[in-house]
């Protein structure tokens, strides 16, 4: 399969954007106002590579500009966007040719979407336990029946670094395994914390306890 290589305007941010994700942004810097206007005029997409530890990450997500929700008198904008597909930066330019914003030659990576049903069932079970423990049962109820790892990527309590690691996994089965491993690690900690909170709340209250029978 021939690699799909293209040149994209780049908008590095300290976040991870997953394919399919809807993202609203307030654009205020002159270089990125220029980027948005160029994308509007030319019908182009742009890329959001993750900015971590003062560096532009190698991986990012191609972004479709859906619409400009609001324009301000000073040129700032509120925009609505959607993540499309993952790319790997082959060459990064701090300034694209004759532009204020960054750009880069990127390769759209192959993303294998086949899932493992049994792992998915385990993820769903652990998510329900986690959300119930945190008092966030509504998140579980809102979970799509046929959810993917990207649908829950921001609802797992992952750090930005961990989300970036997830972005680099280019197989749904690998992402599922990583998510299940994370849930199996974090769930016992959350449950123990909830038990500790309950013990603290009960401290000092009158206790109706049944003595041991011996």
Automatic annotation (TrEMBL):
Domain Lon N-terminal: start-end pairs: 7-185
Xref: SUPFAM superfamilies:
PUA domain-like
Pfam family name, one: LON_substr_bdg
SMART domains per record: LON (SM00464)
| Source organism (scientific name) | Pontibacter actiniarum
**Protein name (Swiss-Prot/TrEMBL):** Peptidase
Q: Which PANTHER family match?
A: ATP-DEPENDENT PROTEASE LA (LON) DOMAIN PROTEIN
**In which domain of life is the source organism classified?**
Bacteria
Q: Which InterPro entries has this protein been placed in?
A: Lon_prtase_N, Lon_prtase_N_sf, PUA-like_sf
């Amino acid at each position: 399969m021939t690699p799909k290589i293209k040149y994209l305007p780049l908008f590095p941010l300290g976040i991870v954007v997953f394919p399919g994700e809807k993202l609203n942004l307030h654009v205020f810097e002159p270089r990125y106002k220029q980027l948005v206007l160029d994308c509007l005029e030319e019908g182009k997409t742009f890329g959001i590579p993750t900015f971590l530890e003062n560096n532009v990450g190698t991986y990012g997500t191609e972004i479709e500009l859906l619409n400009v929700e609001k324009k301000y008198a000073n040129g700032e904008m509120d925009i609505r966007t959607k993540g499309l597909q993952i790319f790997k930066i082959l060459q990064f330019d701090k300034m694209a040719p004759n532009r204020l914003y960054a750009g880069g030659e990127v390769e759209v990576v192959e993303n294998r979407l086949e899932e493992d049903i049994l792992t998915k069932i385990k993820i769903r079970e652990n998510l329900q336990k986690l959300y119930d423990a945190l008092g966030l049962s509504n998140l579980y109820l809102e979970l799509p029946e046929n959810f993917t790892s990207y649908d829950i990527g921001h609802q797992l309590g992952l750090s930005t670094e961990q989300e970036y690691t997830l972005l680099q996994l280019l197989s749904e089965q690998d992402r599922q395994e990583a998510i299940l491993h994370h849930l199996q690690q974090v769930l016992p900690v959350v449950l123990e914390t909830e038990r500790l909170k309950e013990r603290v709340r009960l401290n000092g209250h009158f206790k109706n306890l049944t003595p041991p029978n011996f």
